[in-house]
Amino acid sequence: MVTALVTGGTSGIGASFARALALRGYDLVLVARDEKRLGEMAEELRAEGVSSVETISADLSVRADIDRVAERLESTDSPIDFLVNNAGFGIHGSLLERDVSIHERALDVMCLAVLVLGGAAGRSMKARHRGTILNVSSVAGTIATGNYSAVKAWTTAYTEGLAVELKGTGVQVSAVLPGWVRTEFHERAGIRTRSIPNVLWLDADDLVAETLRDVARGAVLSVPSKRFKVLFFFTRHLPRRVIRYISGRISSSRNKPAESSAANTGSGSGVQQSSAEVKR
């Protein structure tokens, strides 16, 4: 029996990972903040034939909740063989805002939680000489579109560091760097997507399938689709001044007017925060 734990496993990329791993014979532990959606997802998976679906309601911006999930990862009674650190949300706001609460939450959910859960899984898996840790990063981490880029750059660098530390232990550590994926992620973040060409959009299930193939062959970084592999190559090798120019053009083309963003959030922050820690 093998078990996978997926954070943000009730929708989007997280739900696709949960279904794909279930088809590969994994029992599942789903972590998300919304208990209703957790229950619905669990029932759906059981109806599809998954023998065991455990749910943990946790807000990964709360340290006590992070620690509860970490305890589950280190449990020896029912070990976790595959961790997918997927929970996250979009950040649509200026780095100059006086109120940095959304940025603090982003660092908690997409950096601190990844660090703590990755460490817990790494210790447990290293002791058993087997296991997989997969962190969901983004190609956005190779450009400079605000704090989301900074967070995802950290996720990629952290993954490579953890892979180095666990090399030779039997534990595989990887990060997937998606491009634009058709989920509710952008809508929840209040990000306009009309300017993004259709050819750049990826299907979540296709992305997950390619990622799992890359993980199986031992890749530390997975960039699904040929078109994003090409973009990733250029963002890694172009001069940074060129990347900053491109980043500015991307940001200006997708940002909503301030009045619209403020109306969406009920504040002047210009940030549409997801209702759960998930939602890629």
Automatic annotation (TrEMBL):
Keywords from the UniProt entry: Oxidoreductase
Coiled coil: none
An annotated GO cellular component: membrane
SUPFAM superfamilies: NAD(P)-binding Rossmann-fold domains
Domain Ketoreductase: start-end pairs: 2-183
UniProt cross-references to InterPro entries, sorted A to Z: KR_dom (IPR057326), NAD(P)-bd_dom_sf (IPR036291), SDR_fam (IPR002347)
Pfam (any one): adh_short
Biased composition (Polar residues): 261-280
Residue numbers spanned by region Disordered: 253-280
UniProt EC number: 1.-.-.-
GO MF term set: oxidoreductase activity
Family: Belongs to the short-chain dehydrogenases/reductases (SDR) family.
Protein name: SDR family NAD(P)-dependent oxidoreductase
